[in-house]
Write a structure and sequence with these properties.
Elements (H helix, E strand, L loop, with lengths): L18 E3 L5 E7 L5 E8 L2 E4 L7 H4 L3 E13 L4 E9 L1 H7 L7 E7 L11 E7 L12 H8 L40 H20 L5
Parallel strand pairs: 1-6
Antiparallel strand pairs: 2-5, 2-7, 3-4, 3-5, 5-6, 7-8
């Protein structure tokens, strides 16, 4: 028998394991969408980690924890240091999916970002569509099922769960006359503390008189 064919070492192959990425706080990613549609599932947060919520029968000790929807797509994220698009399984939140809803397609470039918390206020992950490119410009999508199976250590994960949050309501602004106290059209009457006290006393006396009146038969 001849010598076996040498297997290429990982360092010889220009590939890397596909990671699951989500937007940190604060943080910003520029991604290219490879999947034709977003996948979704429910998770529970407990013991400092997410747990998959099985719609066919979630364990009672897990189902008691708060439940959150998470979305996933096959994507490429721009890595500035190497100036390359890196394949990834990108995770999105409920709010992020609402930004993408009715717009999402394969072949798009999105900016995914999240602001840092300020004075205890937390900001959501937001998405902004930057560009729509021909699908042929992007690589083929890859299967997310094995990636999510490894992530949640659960076989047979169902990824067809829609985001339960409703669509945002978008309405046009109305034109019309400005209110009287805008642009100097009419100055607002200054607050008169004494006048307010007298009005309150009159209202209290009127209510007292009403309680003294005999009930009608």
């Amino acid at each position: 028998m001849g010598n076996p064919i040498p297997m290429p070492r990982p360092s010889d192959v220009p590939r890397q394991a596909v990671r699951v990425l989500s937007c940190p706080e604060p943080g910003e990613f520029t991604i290219r969408t490879l999947s034709r549609e977003l996948l979704g599932l429910f998770t529970h947060w407990g013991a400092k980690r997410p747990w998959y919520c099985d719609p066919d029968g979630c364990a009672a000790n897990i189902h008691k924890w708060p439940r959150t929807w998470r979305g996933y797509l096959a994507a490429e994220v721009w890595e500035q240091a190497r100036r390359v698009w890196v394949p990834c399984c990108f995770e999105i939140t409920e709010n992020c999916e609402r930004d993408m809803r009715q717009l999402y397609k394969r072949g798009q470039v999105w900016k995914i970002s999240r602001e840092a918390s300020k004075k205890g206020k937390h900001f959501p992950v937001v998405a902004e569509l930057l560009e729509q490119r021909p699908e042929s410009d992007f690589p083929h999508a890859f299967d997310l099922q094995p990636i999510l199976t490894n992530l949640y250590h659960h076989c047979g994960i169902l990824v067809n769960q829609p985001n339960p949050m409703p669509c945002r309501l978008y309405l046009a602004c109305s034109e019309g006359e400005a209110p009287p106290n805008v642009n100097g059209e009419q100055e607002a009457k200054p607050f008169d503390k004494e006048e307010s006290r007298k009005a309150f006393e009159e209202l209290r006396r009127a209510r007292a008189e009403q309680t003294k009146m005999p009930a009608r038969t």
